[in-house]
């Protein structure tokens, strides 16, 4: 049986727990590649990922170990890519759960391990970094046994750095993880679990064959996208890309089929043979759904076309980003963009600025609301400006998350305060050991989107970790706040907030703007309003003296410089309600504290 010696697995680990180092060791030990060469060449190919320690694009490597063929399937390491993780796990029969022996398991790793259990995968747990003096493998083995039911005496103890225990880990993988099942004669069913766009080859997909045979001459039907493409190349990564004639059941490799758009080869897509199609696609496919939205505007209005082009290019590689042109009275022409989550948003924004050399203003992140109208209709609101007026509103629903926090017990109080102040409701609280705690809350996505992660980290000196998943919708008392300058609403500062927080938001925004908006020739009222009702007000007092008087009448070149600078600044002024607002004020005011 050719399947009996195949093992498909993914290494599940928290950032910095040693996944890359372990992958290096495995490649070295199995003789796949010179270890030093490899890190630069094959792993974490994007700069931003490397800097942030996030692996988004998978490299799926095939290695040999004592007569077995092992496919190491990479999973995206970040909380916003939960669905992608689930598709990668669907390609595996087991996982190696890698946990730092000086840190213990973290929230996202635990969530991924639970997912692995839901997929009925075998978990091979290993405590890494046992060479560290601070390592406490007994303690963390007990913890893993408690939360995942993996017997402590079956948990391996390794050092990816020194290589200690890594060969035993590979032996355990071959012994404990079951081989794949599948029928070679059945119609083809292959699971696409990752795709990226290559400038020269088009879309390159990672594929796991379940049934049938994926051959190099085949015409393929992509069952969810409903498209047909001819195979150009299939192959495996050793880790160098190596074409093969075909991939059979249980095998993992890459597929190139002349596809120009990653949206046609999404994670979860099933490929079959056009001439002999499988009756059904594999289960579990989902359309990616953006959860977090913001407006992106070029600081320099001339860069609008460049921003559009950059978004088009970026989408070639990341079909989960959505964008639509949007106009703001205050910020000009830009796009309303949708993201899988907050970190996804940050990554995209950073890539736009770095790889495409754009300077952008981002509006505050927001979530999608469902506004139910008095006439029975429902409107999806992605932007405060789309919010129907109060008299037409029956109710509003907002998306919720189930958030899991793992933390040392000493921070329990401050974490509960934090969750409560963000309208969270406790679902569960459990001790993982004498000093560690699991807290589970239902919490509005909008509250997490703002700065929850930063608040969590700063309250626990970085020791708490967070994972979350979508958890339905709930009706809430939400209001739209407008901020008015000299009586004119400024769209960029509008927000949808919970009623209980409206006052605070209004006060904070008006105070901030009072400091940011320069004095004009007249008094400028800054107001925050809900419906027609003013809930906060500040005033920028009219200026009394000419700007030159600041220079004590002295140095003439200094005066000239000041005038020049003023002229420069003028170009970047927006005129709102007769008030001249420097662009910098928008940037500052939209920055989250
Ligand atoms: P990202 O690539 O950032 O996602 O992290 P990762 O989980 O892949 O961790 P990585 O392999 O980069 O290791 C993180 C740090 O831990 C590095 O500085 C490694 O050198 C170190 N490290 C990994 N394994 C061991 C180990 O067994 N012992 C010791 N002492 N350090 C280790």
TrEMBL record:
Location in the cell: Cell membrane
Sequence similarity: Belongs to the TRAFAC class translation factor GTPase superfamily. Classic translation factor GTPase family. LepA subfamily.
Assigned keywords, A-Z: Cell membrane, Elongation factor, GTP-binding, Hydrolase, Membrane, Nucleotide-binding, Protein biosynthesis
Domain spans labelled Tr-type G: 4-181
Superkingdom, natural source: Bacteria
Annotated residues for binding of GTP: 16-21, 128-131
Protein's name in the database: Elongation factor 4
Catalytic reactions on record: GTP + H2O = GDP + phosphate + H(+)
Pfam families named in the record: EFG_C, GTP_EFTU, GTP_EFTU_D2, LepA_C
InterPro entries, per database record: EF-4, EFG_III/V, EFG_V-like, EFTu-like_2, G_TR_CS, LepA_C_sf, LepA_CTD, LepA_IV
Membrane topology according to the record: Peripheral membrane protein
Enzyme Commission numbers on file: 3.6.5.n1
Function (record text): Required for accurate and efficient protein synthesis under certain stress conditions. May act as a fidelity factor of the translation reaction, by catalyzing a one-codon backward translocation of tRNAs on improperly translocated ribosomes. Back-translocation proceeds from a post-translocation (POST) complex to a pre-translocation (PRE) complex, thus giving elongation factor G a second chance to translocate the tRNAs correctly. Binds to ribosomes in a GTP-dependent manner.
GO molecular function, one term: hydrolase activity
């Amino acid at each position: 049986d050719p399947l009996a010696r195949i093992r498909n697995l993914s290494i599940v680990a928290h950032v910095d727990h040693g996944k890359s180092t372990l992958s290096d060791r495995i490649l070295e030990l199995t003789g796949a590649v010179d270890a030093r060469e490899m890190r630069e060449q094959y792993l974490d190919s994007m700069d931003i990922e490397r800097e942030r320690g996030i692996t988004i694009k998978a490299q799926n490597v095939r290695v040999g170990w004592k007569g077995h063929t092992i496919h190491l399937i990479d999973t995206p390491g970040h909380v916003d890519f939960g669905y992608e993780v689930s598709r990668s796990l669907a390609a595996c029969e087991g996982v190696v759960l890698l946990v730092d022996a000086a840190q213990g398991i973290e929230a996202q790793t635990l969530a991924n391990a639970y997912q692995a259990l839901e997929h009925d995968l075998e978990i091979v747990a290993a405590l890494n970094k046992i060479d560290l003096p601070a390592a406490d493998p007994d303690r963390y083995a007990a913890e893993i046994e408690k939360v995942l039911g993996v017997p402590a005496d079956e948990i391996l103890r390794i050092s990816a750095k020194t290589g200690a225990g890594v060969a035993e880990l590979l032996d355990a993988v071959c012994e404990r993880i079951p081989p794949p099942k599948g029928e070679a004669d059945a119609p083809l069913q292959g699971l696409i679990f990752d795709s990226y766009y290559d400038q020269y080859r088009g879309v390159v997909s990672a594929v796991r064959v379940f049934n049938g045979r994926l051959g190099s001459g085949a015409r393929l039907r992509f069952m969810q996208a409903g498209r047909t493409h001819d195979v150009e190349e299939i192959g495996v990564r050793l880790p160098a890309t190596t074409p093969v004639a075909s991939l059979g059941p249980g095998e993992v490799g890459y597929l190139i089929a002349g596809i120009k758009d990653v949206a046609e080869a999404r994670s979860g897509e099933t490929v079959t043979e056009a001439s002999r199609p499988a009756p059904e696609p594999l289960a579990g496919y989902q359309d990616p759904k953006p959860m977090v939205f913001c407006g992106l505007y070029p600081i320099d209005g001339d860069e609008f076309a460049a921003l559009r082009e950059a978004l088009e290019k970026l989408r070639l590689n990341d079909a989960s980003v959505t964008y639509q042109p949007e106009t703001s009275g205050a910020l000009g022409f830009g796009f309303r963009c949708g993201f899988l989550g907050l970190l996804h948003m940050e990554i995209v924004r950073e890539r736009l600025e770095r790889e495409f050399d754009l300077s952008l203003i981002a509006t505050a992140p927001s979530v999608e609301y469902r506004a139910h109208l008095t006439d029975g209709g429902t409107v999806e609101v992605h932007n405060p400006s789309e919010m129907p007026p109060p008299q037409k509103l029956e109710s509003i629903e907002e998306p919720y998350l189930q958030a899991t926090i793992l933390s040392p017990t000493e921070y329990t109080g401050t974490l509960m305060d934090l969750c409560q102040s963000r309208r969270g409701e406790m679902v569960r609280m459990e001790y993982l050991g004498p000093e560690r705690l699991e807290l589970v809350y239902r919490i509005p996505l909008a509250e997490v989107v703002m700065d929850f992660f930063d608040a969590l980290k700063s309250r626990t000196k970085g020791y708490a970790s967070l994972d979350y998943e979508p958890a339905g919708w709930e009706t809430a008392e939400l209001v739209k706040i407008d901020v008015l300058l000299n009586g004119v609403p400024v769209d960029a500062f509008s927000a949808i907030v919970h009623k209980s927080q409206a006052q605070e938001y209004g006060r904070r925004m008006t105070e901030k703007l009072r400091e940011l908006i320069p004095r004009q020739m007249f008094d400028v009222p800054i107001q925050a309003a809900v419906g027609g009702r003013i809930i906060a007000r500040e005033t920028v007092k009219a200026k009394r003296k000419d700007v030159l008087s600041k220079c004590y009448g002295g140095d003439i070149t200094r005066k000239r410089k000041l005038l020049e600078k003023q002229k420069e600044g003028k170009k970047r002024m927006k005129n709102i309600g007769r008030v001249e607002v420097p662009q910098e004020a928008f940037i500052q005011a939209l920055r989250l504290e």
